[in-house]
Amino acid sequence: MKRILLLLIAITVVSGCATTPSKPEPVASSATKESAQPAIPDKPVDVWLMPLEGFPPEYARELEKKFSAELCLNVRATVHAGRTPKMFGPSKQMLGERVRDELKVPLQRLYDVTPKTIFVVLTRDDLNSEDGGTRFLFAMHFPPERLSVVSMARLSDSFFGKKDTPEVTKLRLYKMVKKAIGTQYYAYPRSTDLKSVMYSPVMSLDDLDAVGTDF
Questions:
Q1: 3 state DSSP class of 57
Q2: Rounded CA separation 149/190 (Å)
Q3: Which of these ranges, 26-35, 96-105, 160-169, 176-185, has the smallest mean pLDDT?
Q4: CA nearest 94: which of 52, 63, 147?
Q5: Rounded average pLDDT over 120-124
Q6: How far apart are the C-alpha atoms of 138 and 153, rounded to whole Å?
Q7: CA atoms in the 13 A half-sphere facing the CB of 38
Q8: Alpha-carbon distance 63 to 45, whole Å?
Q9: Whole-Å CA distances, 73 to 8, 115, 144, 189
Q10: Cα–Cα distance between 60 and 122 in angstroms, integer?
Q11: Which helix or strand (DSSP H or E) is residue 101 part of?
Q12: How far apart are alpha carbons 197 and 177 in whole angstroms?
C-alpha cells in the first residue's frame, strides 16, 4: 500500500511539471507598435514667419496661431534670426534688399518647404529700400523669392512719442502680415477698396487704421 502511495505521488509531480504553462509570447509595447507603423510625413508649411532679433516673440506666436486658424494654412514661426550690420544702410535704417540677401541661406535651410511656401520676415527695426525713394516703408515684398519683410517700428504709437497702445500695434501688424500673405501666397493684386486689407498705397498710420481686415 505504501509503495502504491509513493508511486501515485511521483506520477502527480511529473504530471504537474509537464502541464506547467509555457511562458507567453511577449506582447509588443505601444511604442514598438508605433515605431513599426510607417511614419506620417509632416504637413508642408504654407507660411514661415521669421522674427529677427529684437522682435517680440509673443507677437510672432500670436500671428502663427491666428493665421493658422483663420486661413486654414500651416503657419509656423521660427526661432529668432540674427541681425547683421550688412542689413543696415548709412541712415541706420534696415534695407529690405539686404535683408533678403542676408537671409537667403537661412531660409533655404527651413524644412517642409514647397514651391508655394512663402516667407515673412518680422523686424522691429525701421525699414526702407536701397533707393530711399520714401522716408520709410511698413513692408517690402519680393515675389521672385516669395519673401516679404514687415517692420513694426512705425506701427507703434510710442515710436512717435505717444502713449503705447499694444493692442492697436498688434492690429496694425496683423494687417500688414495678412497683406503680405495675400500678396505672396494668394497672389492677390493691390486694391483701391479701403475695406480690403490689400488696399494700396498705405502711406501713414491713418491710412492703415482705416484699412479693413479682410481680403
A1: helix
A2: 17
A3: 26-35
A4: 52
A5: 98
A6: 8
A7: 2
A8: 15
A9: 78, 15, 21, 20
A10: 8
A11: helix 96-102
A12: 10
**CA dist list (Å): 46 to 8, 52, 57, 115:** 80, 19, 20, 10
CB 49 within 8 A of CB 75: yes
Can you give the pLDDT at residue 40?
44
Cα 81 from Cα 51, distance rounded (Å): 6
- Regarding beta strands 147-151 and 139-142, do their DSSP bridges make them parallel or antiparallel, or are they unpaired? antiparallel
Whether 50 has a pLDDT exceeding 70, the answer reads yes
CB-based contact 212:199 (threshold 8 Å): yes
Domains, in order of start, for the chain: 47-210 (3.40.390.10)
**Predicted structure pTM score:** 0.80
Average pLDDT of span 24-50: 57
